[in-house]
Design a protein that fits this description.
By secondary structure, the chain is of the alpha+beta class. It has helices at residues 48-60, 65-70, 79-91, 112-127, 132-142, 147-164; strands at residues 3-7, 10-14, 20-23, 95-100, 103-108. It has six helices and five strands. Mean pLDDT is 78; it is low at 11-41.
């Protein structure tokens, strides 16, 4: 009897003797073991459609393309469109998949918090000359924040600074 076990992307098999033997992991055409995310050198910004799909993937934590389509508003986009978007997200290093025959179950590699930090930092750099205080000043003016809200925001920032120390 042969039993297959995967651990850290290496497949082991046990023969009737019970002694493990090591198989080399299967390689894709790009040299990455299947199911192993590509090592990201830098995060890329998502398009609006990619971000909408990614929000659903973060919410569901894993699923097949049909699951993601079912979570979308009507009119629902074609299966092939969302399948293409998910493959682009995989190429960009945001999701990976586990194959079950012809079916692929996708799951996020990048957390929502990691992308949020990246996106907000990009926003600050592009629109506020890299200054968080310029951004906060803009939002305070545009949203007409009350003094109590500003004080609460300052207190929150001070608490975060203390917890970082």
């Amino acid at each position: 009897m042969i039993k297959f076990v995967s651990f850290r992307h290496i497949t082991y098999f046990y023969v009737s003797s019970g002694q493990p033997s090591r198989l080399s992991p299967k390689k894709t055409s790009k040299g990455n073991p299947r199911g192993c995310p590509k090592k990201m050198t830098s995060m890329k910004e998502l398009t609006k459609v990619e971000e909408e799909v990614m929000q659903i993937i973060w919410q569901k934590e894993r699923g097949v393309v049909r699951d993601f389509i079912n979570e979308m508003n009507d009119p629902k986009p074609p299966y092939s469109t969302i399948s293409s978007v998910v493959r682009i997200l995989e190429k960009k290093g945001f999701v990976s998949h586990k194959a079950y025959g012809k079916t692929h179950e996708y799951f996020p590699i990048i957390t929502k918090d990691e992308y949020r930090k990246f996106a907000v930092n990009g926003l600050v750099k592009r629109f506020f000359a890299g200054s968080a205080s310029n951004m906060l000043s803009f939002f305070a003016k545009e949203n007409q924040l009350e003094p109590e809200e500003l004080k609460s925001l300052i207190d929150s920032i001070n608490e975060n600074d203390k917890s970082d120390e």
